[in-house]
Amino acid sequence: MRKSVWLFTLLLLCSCVNNHRLSKALELAGSNRGELEKVLIHYKDSGEKYKAACFLIENMPKCYSYKGWLIDTLRYWKATTDSFGIIDSSQVAKWEKYPASMMNKEYDIHVITADYLIRNIDQAFVVWKKRPWNKDLSFDDFCELILPYRIGDETLEDWRSVYSEEFSFLLDSVYIGTDVMEATKVVMENLRERGFRFNNDFDSPHMGALFLLEHRAGKCVDMCDFGLYVLRSLGIPATADVYFFESESRMGHIWDVVRDSLGNFVNINSFHVAKFKWDVDGRRIGKVFRYCYGLQKEKLKFLSVKDEIPPLFRHCFVKDVSEDYFKDDLVLDLSDVEDDYVYLGVFRPQTAGEGVDIAKLRKGKATFNNIEAKMIYMPLAYENSTYKPIGYPFFF
């Protein structure tokens, strides 16, 4: 019996387009492999649901949660955030510089159950097919914008059913139309009424769906997560855009985006639907990236080049979406540079700068596409895990 199940599973894997990555994921699952195989067998005759299961599993090896008393402690104190966004200063001083080694990673692929994954897939398909604005939403977009069972490194939780029970009335009775952006506005108005207590203390992992539903407190990433849980649970296709560093604030920022019926992505900032795409939060940011659950294959080219490539540009689950925001291109003459790849940088104190874009040097010229104008940039190289200037700062 065991042998026949193994042979049947092997046939299932061979039928999947990306069976090499799927096979690798199953191998990495170790003793939990049987749970993932149950999912594939469950959907063996389900067409798109089987493909969705393959998509989730083959991209699962990167996914993990933090476990232990420390993350529980951080959540406890984050929950005490008052209406002014303040936590007891003595507790902030005590916990703000904890060593990351005090938290343990638990990889999904080692612990996720078949029941959990099947329940998430089924619930995601229900809202995809139910909402009228998704009639033209492609399967690939569904996989990125509604299907994922997690957002970041939060604890695995059965959040879809809880959020659906809490918020589905908004689209089943308050708004019953067919316009996805009108539906989004209704949802965001409800979230504004509920309120969110902004607090930037602790460099903590993602707080998690159930914590955010109960406490509605945290950083911009937590506010963004809360919005995504709500939107995806209701069948509104959404994800998160980000810039990683901005010179004036010396920080990054993340916000939600919703795919409209024309395939454009509309910004959601602090539960408000943005009127102007290019105005993210009033700052000059240079480039914008989008978090993805699925592997971005174009990034694989950077994994084998001889040059040392910074982590941002090797990150295979983030893609450059600056084209949605900026339309200007920049060409730099760097004929005296010998590196294959060069970087467009912004000012960062006590360093040579921070790279926000990468370009391959061709005949002494580097072309950077979809760059925000009216900013100061500088050309950079990257060696020994450090940026170094290869030209003077300039105003674009």
Write a brief structural summary.
This protein has about 400 residues and is α+β, with helices and mostly antiparallel strands. The chain contains 15 helices and 17 strands.
Mean pLDDT: 91
Please tally the helical runs, counting DSSP H or I stretches of 4 or more residues: 15
Shape: globular
Main sheet attributes: strand count, strand direction, barrel closure = 6 strands, antiparallel
Structure report:
The chain is an alpha+beta fold and 396 residues long. It is built from 15 helices and 17 strands. The strands form five sheets. A six-stranded antiparallel β-sheet has the order 8-7-6-5-9-10, with helices on one face. Strands 12, 13, 15, 16 and 17 form a five-stranded antiparallel β-sheet that branches. A two-stranded antiparallel ribbon has the order 1-2. Helix 2 (19-28) packs across helix 4 (48-58), helix 3 (33-42) packs parallel to helix 8 (114-130) and helix 10 (159-167) packs across helix 14 (220-233). It is globular and about 60 Å long. It starts with a helix and ends with a strand. The relative contact order is 0.09. Residues 1-17 have low confidence and may be disordered.
